[in-house]
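Can you give me the bound-state structure? Components:
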Amino acid sequence: MSRQPYLPIALVVAGLALLPLGLTSNTVLNFLAFAMIITLAAQGWNILGGYGGQFSFGHAVFFGTGAYAMALLQVRFGINPWLALPLAMALGAGVGFAIGYLSFRARLRGSYFALVTLAFAEVFRISANAWGFTGGAAGVLVPLRIGAEHMQFADKRLAYWLALAFVAATLALTLALSRSRFGAHLVAVRENEEAARALGVDALAVKLKAITLSGAITASAGCLYTQKFLYLDANLAYGPWISVEALLAPIIGGLGTVFGPLVGAVVLLGLGEVTKTTFANLTGGAIPGVDLVVFGVLLILCVAYAPRGVLGLAEGWLGRLKGTRP
Amino acid sequence: MLKLDIFLSALANGLMTGAVYALISLGLTLVYGVLHIINFAHGATLTAAMFAVLIAHTVFGLDPYLAVFFLTPLFFALGYGVQRFVINPASHGSDSNILLVTLGLSIIIENALLAGFRSDTRSIDVPYGFSVVEVGNLFLSVPKLVAFVASFVVALLLWLLLARTDTGKAIRAVAKEKTGAALSGINVDHIYAVTFGLGAACLAIAACLLMPTFLVNPRIGNAFVLVAFTIVVLGGMGSIAGALVGGLIIGVVESLSGLYFGESLGQIGIFLIFILVLLFRPTGLFGAKA
Amino acid sequence: MSALLSVQGVTKRFGGLTAVDNASLDVAAGSITGLIGPNGAGKTTLFTVIAGFEPATAGKVQFEGRDITALPAHVRAVQGIARTFQIVQPFAGLSVRENIAVGAFLRHKARQAALEQADAVGHQVGLGPLLDQSAGQLTVAGRKRLELARALATAPRLLLLDEVLAGLNPSEIRDMMPVVQAIRSSGVTILIVEHVMQAVMSLCDTVHVLAQGRIIAAGPPGTVSRDPAVIEAYLGHGAAARMQAQDIRQAESRGDHPGAPHA
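Here's the bound-state model for the whole set.
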C-alpha cells in the first residue's frame, strides 16, 4: 500500500493537463474534452455499477437531467451557469435518489434493475421530446455568450481543463470512497448482500447513497456537455448512446477501480475514432455505426477474457514481466 | 355510432398487433423461463429478422409468407449457434455477464445493420398489403388478421412442442432443475441453445408476419424490445399463457391510448406499466413464481 | 446468570407450513447454548428469525431486556448480535483481511483502525497467515473460520453460529472447537445450531431441542441426551422404549442397577 495514495491521481491529472500545451489542433482538443465528459459520466456509473454491483442500463436519465437542467435554468430562468451547474447536479442526485428509492425498496436487482433504469430513461426521453417546456422535439439552444462568467470559452483548452478539473475531483472522491467505511460497505453489498446485512450494513441505505452520488456525478457530465455544444434534444440528452458509453467505459477500463472509467473512455473513444477513419478511408465515405459495432465486440471480449478490463490485463502483464525478471 | 366504431376498430387493431407482440414475447419468456436470463439482444434479433424478410423479398422476390419457411430454420440455427458458441462460453455462467454479453450482441447487430442499410426506413410492397375484410361495421386488415391467427397457431405449436415431445420434456426438466437434468443425462448446454434457437425462430416468424404492414429501420427493435419486456413482466416471467394475454393487453392499451392521448404518450403508458409492474408486482399479473 | 437473549413463543409460518411453533428459549449471558434437533425440525428457521433475516409470524425476541422483534438484521448487528451462515458467504472478490474489515467497520469508522481490528481477529481465529489471500481461494475450513472472523469483528455480545462445524473433517473439528471456546472465554455469549453431536455435547452448557417446530426439551447436554422425547424425535417412535429395554437387559446381565450413568 502506497503511503501517498493520491499521488497517482495527481500525476495522471498533471499529465492530462499538460497535453494541450503540445497538442493544439481543434480536433484533438475536442476529442479530449469529449473524452473527459464521457469519463465523468462513466465515473458516476462506476460508483453504482462497479463498486456497488448494480448495473444500470439507463444512466442517460442522469446525464440528460443534468444537461436539460443546465440548459433550461439558463434559458428559461436566466440563472448563471456557474450556479446552474450545482443545481443541475442536485437535481441529478434527486432523480437518482427517487429511482433508487423506488427500485431498491422493491428489491429489484440484476436484470430487473437494469431494465427498470432503461425504462426510466425512455420515459424521460419521450417526455422531454413531447413537452413544450423542454423545447419538445426541436430541443433547446443555449445562446452563445463567450466569457468565463458564462462558462463558455473561446479558448478550447479552458473548456478541456474545466472538464479535467471535474474528472480530477471525482477521481479523488472515488479513491477516498474506496478507502472509506461507505466504500467497504458498498463493495460488501455488491459481493453478497445477505452477508453484508449480517455485518450491520444497511444495504438499502448504502445503495441509495451510491445511486444518489452516481446521479450527481453523471449529471455533471450532462452539464458540461450542454456548455460545450450549447444545443440539446431528447435523443442527445436521454438517448441510449450515453447509457451505453457510461457503462462500457468502466467495464472496458476496469470495473470498480478508480482509473477504470478514465482508461476505458479514452480507449473507447480513441478506438471509435480510429475505426471511423479507417472505414471512411476504405470505402470513401463515413459509415454510421461501425464504431459501435467495435464497442459491442469489445464489450463481449472484455466479459469473456478480461473481466477486470484493460487495467486488469495491464496489471497481469506487469506482474508477469516482474516475475520473469532474473 | 361513429365513436363506437372508431373505438371498436382501435380495439380490433390493438388485439391484432397485440397477438404479434405476444409472439415476440414468447421467445423472450421462453428463454427467461428456461435459462433464467434476460436476452437483451431480443429486439435487435427481431430487427435482423425483419431485414432478412426485406432481403428475401427485394433480392430473391420471396413473399414474406413463403420466406417464413426458410427464415424460421435459419434463425433457429443462428440462435442455437450464438447461445452455444458465444453467450454461453463468454459469460462464465454469471447472470450479469449474460446481460452484458446480450447487450453487446444487441449493439453489434443494431449497428451492423445501421452500417449496412443506413438509418433509412424501408418497407416492402405486397399485393395484399392494404386488403381488408369487412366484419360487421369494421374493416380489418387482412395481413394483420393473418398475423393474429398465425401468432396463436405458433403459440399452440410451441406449447405442443413443450408438452408432447422429448425435447420439450428435456427443456422443461432443465427449466425446473438443471443440475438434476444434467445428472439424468440431459445435455444442458444443448437444451439452452435449443431454447435460444426457438426464441429466435419465433422472432423470424413474427418478422414475416409484421413486414407486410410494418416499416423497418435498424432501430426498430428498440421500439419492440421494451414492449416485449413489459409483456413478459406483465404476464409473469416464463409463462407462455401470460405472454399471450399480456401481449393482447398491451396491444389494446397502446392502440386505445394512442387513440385518446396521441402516439408518444401512448408509448409512455407502456413504459409506465412496465415500471409499475416491476416495482409493485414483479411476479406479473398471473405469475405465482418468484 | 441472566438471559442475554430471550425467545418468547416464536411462531413462523410459510403459507400453510408451520416451521416453528410457539418456541421459547433463553440464552444465559456468558454461556454456550446449543440449538439441536433432527433434520427439518425448524432450527435454521428459528435461527433466521432470531438473527432478523425473517420476520416472526408471532412471538417476541428480546435482547438484553429490549424487544428486538421488529428490528431488521443490520440493526440487530449494531446492537450486538452477529451471525454466521451455514452455507458460507464470503465476499469472494475481496481479500481475507478486507472481508473481516467489513465487519470491523461496524465499530470503527477509520480505515486504519478497521484494518488493525481485522488483523487481530484474523489471528485470533487462525487466519493470520492467509490475510492477504483472496477469500475465494480459501478451503472449506478456511471459509468457516472466515465466517467466524467476520462476525467476531463486529464486536458482538451475542454470536449466533449456524453449523460452523458442518462439512469439516474430524481433525478440522478438533481444531475449531478451542477457537469457539476461546471466543466464549473472551466474554461473547454463543448460541450454536449444530449437527455434529459430539461437538454440541462437549461445547454447550445448555441445549434446546427442537422437533417439528416445537421445543421438546432443554437442559444440560447430558440430561437432554437421555430424555426419551429427544431420543424419539431423533430415532423415531418407540426408540426410547427399545433403548431403555436394551439398557435394562445390558445392566441386568452385568448385574448393575438400571439408571446408572452411561460411560
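A couple of observations. Residues 18-119+132-217 of chain B form one domain. The longest strand of chain B covers residues 132-135.
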